[in-house]
Fold this protein.
Amino acid sequence: MQIIRDIATLHRAVTALKQGRKSVALVPTMGALHAGHLSLVRMARRVADHVVVSIFVNPTQFGPNEDYAAYPRDEARDAALLVEEGVGLLWAPDVATMYPAGHGTHIEVAELGADYCGAARPGHFDGVATVVAKLFNQVRPDVAIFGEKDWQQLAIIRRMARDLDFALDILGAPIARDPDGLALSSRNAYLSKEQRGAAAAFPDALKTAAKAIAGGADVAASLAAAETAIVAGGFDSVDYVALADAASLERLTTFREPARLLAAARIGKTRLIDNYPVGG
Ligand SMILES: Nc1ncnc2c1ncn2[C@@H]1O[C@H](COP(=O)(O)OP(=O)(O)OP(=O)(O)O)[C@@H](O)[C@H]1O
Ligand SMILES: CC(C)(CO)[C@@H](O)C(=O)[O-]
Ligand code: BAL
């Protein structure tokens, strides 16, 4: 596997990969790879001739009091996992390569970024959209794969690709979960043993609410019951539990399909997100 850190070498390598009309799939990540990331890589291998994975912990999507410095980084371990998966190219620029001195242009995400994680993390989705647009321009993939765990992020990137005429396909990959239901996330590494034991209360509460709402239960009461169950299960607070239109992300007060239950909650210093489909 080639590990590339500068843009000129990347362009040469991607041009070589694309020879003979071969297709390229990009899997953007922030590293600290787990089985969820590897499921994205496997999807990429199924849909394209070559897979490029990027690892870049993007400072512009972290707020000033968030975990940019503490975010887990272990490139050697990540690279070994990607070699096992048959990945040919790892794009791993440093911050000065991604944002050279004088970098002064960014993408602003409008309404899709206002609610949910966007409300809790001001500027977060502007940072995500900007770096993802840069990754698309750097790698020029035919297809890019993102996880459904970050449902709002996936919706925002689909909209950005459409609004800004990026000529590529965006694919969403299903959420990979631990056996107790907790969605895999690099941030799960922050959890103490006790917190990890409690964390399954989060997906459990969401699954229960999704089932109730699909079965005709009152939406507001089901969302409130989920919040109560998450805190009773050991979480310190709930950022939001909301029923949303699965595509437009508009908040729904009554159930109609396609809908998605979206949530974020905090346990100790760790903020976890998750989501479930509601109905078919
Ligand atoms: N459990 C999962 N199932 C499917 N996709 C996932 C899962 N976890 C992460 N991804 C996807 O992997 C890609 C890279 O995500 P990222 O590197 O931020 O990992 P993460 O585990 O989501 O970390 P974080 O703890 O920052 O949320 C994103 O498209 C994300 O949606
Ligand atoms: C898409 C992404 C790699 C952009 O930094 C990040 O937000 C992530 O890992 O989900
Ligand atoms: N997985 C989304 C990246 C972030 O939380 O910053």
